[in-house]
Amino acid sequence: MGRDFDEAWIDEAIERYQRIEVRLAELDRAAKQTEVTVRSPDGLVEVVATADGTIRDVHIRGQARSTEELSRAVRDAVTAAADAAIWARQKLHAETFGAYQPLA
């Protein structure tokens, strides 16, 4: 015994999937272009990262008293950049998919 399928529902689901794929590609492009800049708490190191997590640049903005201080500043700035990249990607995701209605 065969099942009855609602072809209109299937067509709608396929179209919806294709729209989602397009939106995901837009999200990926936007994430690669959206930059966040963060600094270590002491202001010694500045990191520029994209929302996809790529570190684009690192700037040393002052003179460290020791290699340990510089290492800590780099670690703090990179950690903050990773957090900021996650935040930026979540914001982009909300903007891209926020008005998307669930399949009825």
TrEMBL record:
The keyword Coiled coil applies. SUPFAM superfamilies: YbaB-like. It comes from the Bacteria. Keywords: Coiled coil. The keyword Coiled coil applies. Gene3D superfamilies: Nucleoid-associated protein YbaB-like domain (3.30.1310.10). Residues 10-37 form a coiled coil. It holds the Pfam family YbaB_DNA_bd. This is YbaB/EbfC family nucleoid-associated protein. It comes from Planosporangium thailandense. The lineage of its organism: Bacteria, Bacillati, Actinomycetota, Actinomycetes, Micromonosporales.
